[in-house]
Amino acid sequence: MPPCSPEAKSNHIRTQMKRKNGIVIAIDGPAGAGKSTTARRVAHKMGYLYLDTGAMYRAVGLVALQRGVDLDDAEGVAALGEVLDLAFETRDGQVQTLLNGENVSEAIRTSEISQAASRVAVHPEVREVLVTRQQAMGKDGGIVLEGRDTGTAIFPDAELKIFLTADPGERARRRLRDLQKTGESPDFESLLADIRTRDARDQQTQLQRGAWPAPDAVRIDTTGVSVEEQVDQIVALARGENGRIDE
């Protein structure tokens, strides 16, 4: 039996996947590909909820370090994820990550927390807890999620899947600028090496769970592409997928 054409698949999605608040837009990609900024702006333009799945792992890593929980203790870290009081709010036009009511948006973006998040994310127990919470947040649609595997593990039935990427050097430069904003002074070559290490780890981890990126994801190389261009392209795709969205 021949595979369905993109048009037939889109029509099938619109017929079968009617959610109360709109569609699910899943944006995946490696570290530094521009997922967070792009997803936030897409959500704003669409009037959708924005969910940074990576921030949830970062928050778990932050709390584990604060409470002295071994990052390699899968059950201990998963227990933290179950009781985490985590929310995302837009304040003064900026999406903020709130942990127990405290804004930790900058605190979870340090190099130390990035490494902690990467370590806790490898535990299946932790992923199971957080994926369940993420699916509950987005089940009614009207949401933009971004992370490593939002279109494969979290919402394999997402109406629109995007895979953002960029060359390692470009991603390392972006990471350098982000860290400099928090007051850190990292070395570019160290960041580049870290990007490549994380790429290898992510690739191995994701492929163990199945195809990555999702076979039906739209790939967008963000090297040399402005955020505005990325956002416009994704919003155009989203509006094409959902006939209820006004042009």
What does this structure look like?
By secondary structure, this protein is of the alpha/beta class. It has one domain (20-238): P-loop containing nucleotide triphosphate hydrolases (Rossmann fold), CATH 3.40.50. It contains ten helices and eight strands. The protein has helices at 6-16, 35-46, 53-67, 74-83, 111-120, 124-138, 150-154, 168-181, 188-209, 227-241; strands at 24-28, 49-52, 86-91, 94-99, 102-103, 143-147, 160-165, 218-221. The strands form two sheets. The chain has a five-stranded parallel β-sheet, sandwiched between helices. Strand 3 (86-91) and strand 4 (94-99) form a beta hairpin. Helix 2 (35-46) crosses helix 10 and helix 4 packs parallel to helix 6. It is globular and about 50 Å long. It starts with 5 loop residues before the first helix and ends in a 6-residue tail after the last helix. Mean pLDDT is 83; it is low at 1-16 and 242-247.
**Mean of the pLDDT scores?**
83
The total of helices stands at 10
Task: Write down the CATH class.
Answer: Alpha Beta
- The main sheet orders its strands as 2-6-1-7-8
Total number of distinct structural domains: 1
Helix coverage percent: 40-55%
Question: How much beta, percentage-wise?
Answer: 15-25%
Features:
10 helices; 52% helix; disordered C terminus; five-stranded parallel sheet; single chain; three-stranded antiparallel sheet; disordered N terminus; alpha/beta; 247 residues; Rossmann fold
